[in-house]
């Protein structure tokens, strides 16, 4: 049986950028736990334990919040994987919900990178969704009465020593996949923030 310690009732935002913020992406910087709260603005928080009426919470404090000049035509940018250190930056994957010209909602995802040190700044991103045939083929999907055609959601990221990223992602809330992504090819496909 697993023993849980330091359980918290919630993270209390210092400031909210959008009404719903449930996909904060955790990462470590100098042994401190930080979170990417939103991508645009690019908002990073530190957290500290606090007590409110006998309940433990993590209180978020903004450590950097910068506007990001991102051109993305596939819905609002949202959280996804944990950022990891890669060369001279952190890299992670985000998701968005848009459509393919129909009444169905479609989940898309792409990659982003940001600076290694505060004030954290968004450096580059995927200008178009990362797509593989397996993600957007097969029957359309009706989940709990919500009309989705395809849902590909990035979940976790880790680096293999040979310059290959392993990305786990969920597909249509039915199954999960792990894909291998060549680091150099991914970085070459990304564009600098403000370049489009």
What does this structure look like?
The chain is mainly β. 4% of the residues lie in helices and 53% in strands. The strands form three sheets. Strands 6, 7, 8, 9, 10, 11, 12 and 16 form an eight-stranded mixed sheet that branches. It is globular, with a radius of gyration of 17 Å. The N and C termini lie far apart (52 Å). The model has no long low-confidence stretch (mean pLDDT 85).
Please compute the radius of gyration using only Cα atoms: 17 Å
- Low-pLDDT residue spans: none
Helical content (DSSP H or I, runs of 4+): under 10%
Number of strands: 16
Average pLDDT across residues?
A: 85
Instruction: Quickly give the structural class.
Output: mainly beta
The topology string of helices and strands comes to EEEEEEEEEEEEEEEHE
Distance between the termini: 52 Å
Number of helices: 1
How much of the polypeptide forms β-strand, as a percent range? over 45%
User: Which sheet architecture does the biggest sheet show?
Assistant: 8 strands, mixed
Outline, from the CA principal axes?
Answer: globular
Oligomer: single chain
List the helices and strands and how they pair.
Elements: E1 11-12, E2 25-29, E3 32-38, E4 42-52, E5 55-66, E6 78-80, E7 84-86, E8 89-98, E9 105-115, E10 122-125, E11 141-143, E12 146-150, E13 152-160, E14 164-171, E15 175-182, H1 183-189, E16 191-192
Parallel strand pairs: 1-5, 9-12
Antiparallel strand pairs: 2-3, 3-4, 4-5, 6-8, 7-8, 8-9, 9-10, 10-16, 11-12, 13-14, 14-15
């Amino acid at each position: 049986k697993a023993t849980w310690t330091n359980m918290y009732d919630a993270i209390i935002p210092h400031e909210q950028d959008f009404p719903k913020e449930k996909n904060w992406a955790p990462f470590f910087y100098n042994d401190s736990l930080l979170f990417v709260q939103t991508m645009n603005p690019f908002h990073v928080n530190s957290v500290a334990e606090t007590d409110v009426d006998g309940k433990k919470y993590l209180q978020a404090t903004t450590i950097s919040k910068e506007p990001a000049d991102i051109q993305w035509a596939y819905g609002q940018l949202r959280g996804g994987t944990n950022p990891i250190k890669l060369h001279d930056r952190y890299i992670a994957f985000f998701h968005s919900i848009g459509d393919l010209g129909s009444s169905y909602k479609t989940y898309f995802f792409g990659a982003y990178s940001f600076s290694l040190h505060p004030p954290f700044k968004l450096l580059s991103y995927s200008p178009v969704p990362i797509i593989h045939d397996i993600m957007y083929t097969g029957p359309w999907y009706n989940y709990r009465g919500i009309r989705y055609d395809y849902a590909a959601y990035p979940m976790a990221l880790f680096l293999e020593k040979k310059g290959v990223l392993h990305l786990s992602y969920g597909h249509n809330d039915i199954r999960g996949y792990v894909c291998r992504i060549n680091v150099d090819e991914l970085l070459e496909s990304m564009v600098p923030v403000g370049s489009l």
